[in-house]
């Protein structure tokens, strides 16, 4: 059996979790918003270096208003977490730091990557002051629409998880 | 088999699948209800979800349920709840097909999330629009304020120029210059009004005034304006309208004259008429309708609502001059009065603009004296004593300095000292006995209002009590109130009317 790692994608609804996965796995994008309910699971083999690859099992979870409401079963056996917010909608990052705290409690000792998505919708300068004003340190600023930083983000996480074993 | 158990088999069994796997994930048994599993195949090869089996083996729980797991491929929807139950040496999987239930739940979630996101976006959009609107109004206010200073100089210098020896041709040019100055000043006032209305800084100043006198003034103005043209002006008011009402005389005047000017602008020949109709009187309230009618080009019905927007003029009939602010000022002012301006029009036949406004009136005011009319020559005879008055002029703008200096000198009543730096004022005031100070507000180093405050706090009466007149372009109501609070005795707005300034001086020196 191929070495596999489970990652879960979390965040408020409508931030683009499904679109990020779609971009990464199928290199495609749709402007049409379809609400995810429950969980969709996809697999992608990711090359982590020249002669090594792992199978990334990506759990695309239903977005919630409250992180506390995430079903515990979905998080069982998680190796890595990606938390996504939408840079164009303040409601998705206003409580980011407390959201992240809850996530860390629910998935202890698990690497966490913070992603600000939809950067194509805001002006670069405003984005930086927005992050600063809200005291947010995002690891990646992505656009599922243009593909900006999407592969880098997933590959980075895959490499990180591979190195941990 | 009974009928009931047949049905049960048909409905329940069709939607539940049982699978047994060993501890390596190999399929031992499956009833194949809706997922076909190869015996001895690995369950995680069917769908990546099933890799979870190993997490369950690692956990301390005896069983675990996953809700709403999508197992479908491509367009085929299969949404399930899946229960893993640990048994000795194997795992039992119970898979419930709940696709129908979850699909309808998805539709509800879709509608809910979309409406939340949309309302968030609307709020954000509004914030952005308000921000832009605020910026625009602040910009316009600052800009028109900056224009006041040079305009004051132009107007004053034109007035001085008029008094010099001029030949006929030069006189004519000065007349044109004066007319342009007036137009520019009116336009500037309009722009300021509209931005103040938009930013909510304009407040009505309601006082008792003589309505009949106001209407007389309007009738006189527009009869003169239309004399010698193909338009005649008609005024018609209900005989029972009260003489004295409480309201903002200046703003009512502005509304009516804007409507009438607009009517004149778009009427070639015929009549323009102002009607005041008494709707009703009750207790001390009176409802009046003001109506301005014309026989002009009219407004096409599809354009009737856009005429009240700023900077719009109907294009078809050619530009008539002006910034297109008149009617939007009317709209804003009438709204401030708690009413709404309405328009009715027939293209080619003429237009009618009207509004109903409820005002307070006082019955026992019939004999109240009429207010002084502005622009009367100021009686300076009272000042002509045996000495000249010492005036300190605090002003940094050279042209305003020159104009004030010259016009004050011309009266032969004053000695004038000049200071152009806020920091120098105090020293000058202490070393001289001034009768009055004319104070600009925007000064280098220390502002005029702050100097005023300091003077008022001075321990010696002869300095503390010197009358101070603010001469400033910062004429917003809250600014003026603030200057008066800080100790100015009067505030004269720039561009200033010399008579107004002289009147203020006379009043304070008496």
Automatic annotation (TrEMBL), chain A:
InterPro entries attached to this UniProt entry: P-loop_NTPase, Small_GTP-bd, Small_GTPase
Lineage top rank: taxon: Bacteria
SMART domains on file: RAB, RAS, RHO
A Pfam family annotated for this UniProt entry: Ras
Signal sequence region: none
Nucleotide-binding listed as a keyword: yes
Keywords from the UniProt entry: Nucleotide-binding
UniProt xrefs under NCBIfam families: small_GTP
Protein name in the entry: GTP-binding protein
Organism for this UniProt entry: Maribacter aquimaris
TrEMBL record, chain B:
Keyword Transferase set for record: no
All residue ranges annotated as the Histidine kinase domain in the record: 142-361
Keywords: Phosphoprotein, Two-component regulatory system
Domain Response regulatory: 390-509
InterPro entries: CheY-like_superfamily, HATPase_C_sf, HATPase_dom, His_kinase_dom, HisK_dim/P_dom, HisK_dim/P_sf, Sig_transdc_His_kin-like_C, Sig_transdc_resp-reg_receiver
Catalytic reactions on record: ATP + protein L-histidine = ADP + protein N-phospho-L-histidine
PANTHER family: HYBRID SIGNAL TRANSDUCTION HISTIDINE KINASE J
Name of the protein: histidine kinase
């Amino acid at each position: 059996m191929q070495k596999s790692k489970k990652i879960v994608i979390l965040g408020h609804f409508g931030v683009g979790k499904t679109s990020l996965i779609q971009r990464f796995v199928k290199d495609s994008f749709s402007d049409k918003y379809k609400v995810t309910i429950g969980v969709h699971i996809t697999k992608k083999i990711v090359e982590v270096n020249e002669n090594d690859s792992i199978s990334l099992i990506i759990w695309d979870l239903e977005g919630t208003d409250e992180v506390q409401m995430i079903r515990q079963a979905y998080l069982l056996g998680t190796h890595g977490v990606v938390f996504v917010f939408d840079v164009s909608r303040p409601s998705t990052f206003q409580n980011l730091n407390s959201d992240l705290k809850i996530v860390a409690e629910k998935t202890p000792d698990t690497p966490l990557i913070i992603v600000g998505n939809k950067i194509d919708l805001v002006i670069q300068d405003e984005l930086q002051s927005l992050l600063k004003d809200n005291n947010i340190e995002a690891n990646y600023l992505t656009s599922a629409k243009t593909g900006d930083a999407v592969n880098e983000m997933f590959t980075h996480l895959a490499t990180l998880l591979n190195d941990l074993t | 088999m009974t009928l009931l158990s047949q049905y049960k088999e048909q409905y329940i069994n069709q939607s539940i699948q049982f699978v047994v796997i060993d501890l390596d994930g190999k399929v031992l048994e499956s009833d194949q209800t809706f997922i076909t599993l190869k015996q001895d195949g690995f369950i995680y090869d069917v769908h990546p979800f099933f890799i979870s089996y190993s997490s369950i083996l690692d956990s301390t729980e005896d069983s675990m349920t996953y809700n709403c797991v999508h197992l479908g491929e491509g367009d085929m929807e299969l949404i399930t709840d899946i229960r893993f139950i640990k048994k000795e040496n194997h795992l039992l999987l119970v898979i419930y097909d709940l696709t129908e239930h979850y699909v309808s739940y998805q539709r509800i979630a879709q509608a809910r999330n979309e409406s939340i996101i949309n309302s968030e976006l609307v709020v954000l959009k509004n914030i952005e629009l308000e921000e832009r609107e605020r910026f625009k109004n602040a910009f316009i206010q600052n800009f028109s304020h900056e224009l006041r200073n040079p305009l004051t100089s132009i107007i004053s210098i034109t007035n001085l120029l008029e008094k010099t020896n001029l030949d006929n041709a030069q006189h004519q040019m000065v007349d044109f210059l004066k007319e342009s100055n007036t137009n520019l000043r009116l336009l500037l006032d309009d722009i300021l009004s509209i931005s103040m209305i938009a930013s909510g800084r304009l407040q009505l100043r309601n006082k008792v005034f003589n309505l009949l006198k106001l209407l007389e003034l309007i009738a006189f103005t527009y009869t003169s304006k239309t004399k010698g043209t193909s338009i005649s002006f008609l005024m018609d008011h209900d005989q029972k309208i009260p003489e004295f009402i409480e309201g903002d005389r200046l703003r009512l005047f502005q509304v009516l004259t804007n409507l009438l000017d607009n009517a004149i602008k778009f009427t070639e020949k015929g009549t323009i008429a102002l009607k005041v109709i008494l709707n009703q009187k009750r207790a001390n309230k009176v409802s009046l309708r003001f109506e301005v009618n014309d026989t002009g080009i009219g407004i096409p019905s599809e354009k009737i609502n856009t005429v009240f927007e700023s900077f719009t003029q109907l294009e078809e009939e050619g530009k008539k001059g002006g910034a297109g602010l008149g009617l939007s000022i009317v709209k804003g002012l009438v709204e401030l009065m708690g009413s709404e301006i309405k328009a009715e029009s027939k293209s080619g036949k003429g237009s009618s603009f009207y509004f109903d406004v409820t005002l307070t009136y006082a019955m026992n005011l019939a004999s109240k004296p009429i207010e002084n009319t502005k622009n009367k020559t100021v009686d300076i005879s009272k000042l002509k004593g045996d000495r000249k008055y010492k005036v300190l002029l605090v002003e940094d703008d050279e042209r305003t300095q020159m104009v004030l200096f010259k016009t004050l000198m011309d009266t032969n009543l004053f000695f004038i000292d000049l200071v152009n730096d806020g920091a120098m004022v105090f020293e000058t005031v202490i070393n001289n006995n001034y009768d009055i100070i004319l104070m600009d507000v925007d000064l280098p180093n220390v502002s005029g209002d702050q100097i005023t405050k300091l003077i008022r706090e001075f321990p010696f009466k002869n300095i503390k009590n010197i009358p101070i007149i603010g001469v400033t372009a910062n004429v917003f109501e809250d600014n003026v109130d603030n200057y008066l609070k800080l100790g100015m005795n009067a505030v004269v707005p720039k561009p200033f009317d010399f008579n107004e300034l002289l009147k203020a001086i006379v009043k304070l020196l008496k």
